[in-house]
Amino acid sequence: MKSAYVKPLINRLQQGRMNIYGAQPSYVTKVKSHIDGVAVDELVTRYGSPLYVYSESTLRNKVREVHQEFSSRYPNVTLAWSYKTNYLKAICAVMHEEGSLAEVVSEMEYGMARTLGIPGERIIFNGPYKPRHALELAVDEGAMINIDHMDELHDLEQIAQERGKTIDVGMRLSLDAGIQPQWSRFGLSLETGQAREAVRRMAATGLLRLTGLHCHIGTYILDPEAYGRQTAKMVIFCHELEDVFGFTIDHLDIGGGIPSQSRLKSSYLPADISVPPVEEYAEEVSRALLQNLRSGHMPRLILECGRALVDEAGSLVSTVTASKRLPDGTRSYIADAGLNLLFTSLWYRPNIALAKE
After folding, report:
1. Helix intervals (H) in 116-223
2. Which whole-number Å values give the CA distances from 11 to 16, 24, 328, in the listed order?
3. Closest by alpha carbon to 78, among 97, 96, 95, 101?
4. With contact defined as beta carbons under 8 Å apart, do 249 and 213 qualify?
């Protein structure tokens, strides 16, 4: 039976501009037939489509790469896995097997970490909303609690009074690291004096002992020097805490935000901007630490990495189920996975590949 005639699509070529006859076309097909040595066809046959697949070897290699880049420059480094990035149990378990702490921002995530067998002292409890009963549990289990606001500080003071003991806490700072717009809605402001007021209150009451500082300047940060500016400000504030208030800071948590190699769409960022390698971030942070820390003081550096570790390890396998012509003649395809499964495609440019030639 003869196929029905389909009108061809003709695209106008603009003289003097790049076109598919003068340069490699943007739609050159990429092929990814296997994931960690397993054929994509075999995975679909066994588990169906659409299907998320994560490469364990990629996860482990990424964790080791980031840790190596930082620890080779500064000797006291610990990674913390950001549960909000991806809290699939298998992924969290791999991160913990590689030595990462659990960084959680909700009561739900705290419970997930405990279910995986992570003790309280290896959990960092962040986030602006920590219910009173969740704070009490975290205190009793020895979690690292980073105070986000003055009301939370008040809750912890009450818990300390009820427990009859001084509680070790951390504090989240918001500061100007030269990133615009500045993430100012989380933590206590360094520049406006909010953070100093909180510390002054802790010193006056004696109910809370400040042992760590936390600061997360944003996400997908493409300026490694911003981390150097952030770290330097945190170290200088450490000295003030020691000299004025008598608190000794034993850890500095610079948050996450280091980008993966996933490319943003040009509507969010110019498409020609490249992602700096992780060693540039490690170099800036380590230089700021070593240049500003006092002799004999080497607090633990904590990194709450997320997307930089997991983005390139995951694949969404989808099957083309039909094709059709759009009104302008463009040939389009219908797949069994859409924004419901890959909503990040609104701002990322997915690295699309075929499972076979």
Report:
1. 132-140, 150-163, 194-205
2. 15, 16, 10
3. 101
4. yes
Which residue reads 């986030």 in tokens? 127
* Token code pair at residue 242: 């020691």
316 near 337, Cβ under 8 Å? yes
Distance CA 184, CA 60 (A): 33
Is 110 within 8 Å of 134 (Cβ atoms)? Answer: yes
User: Which amino acid is present at 129?
Assistant: Y
Tokens (6 digits) for 66:
């980031």
Q: Which amino acid is at 294?
A: R
Q: Closest by alpha carbon to 355, among 59, 45, 60?
A: 45
Written as six digits, the tokens of 182 are 């500045």
Residue 350 pLDDT > 90, yes or no?
no
Residue 63's Cβ-side half-sphere holds a number of Cα atoms within 13 Å equal to: 24
Per-residue pLDDT of 59-102, as tens digits, reads 999 999 999 999 999 999 999 999 999 999 999 999 999 999 99
* DSSP letter for each residue of 262-315: PPBPTTTS-TTPPPPPHHHHHHHHHHHHHHHSPTT--PEEEE---HHHHGGGEE
The neighbouring-strand residues paired with 81 are 102
- Helix (H) or strand (E) run with residue 21 in it: none
* CA atoms of 314 and 311, how far apart (whole Å): 6
Residue with tokens 């298998």: 90
- CA neighbor of 233 nearest in space, from 209, 248, 254: 254
Task: Quote the CA–CA distance of 87 and 125 in Å, as a whole number.
Answer: 15
The continuous run of DSSP H or E covering 45 comes out as helix 40-47
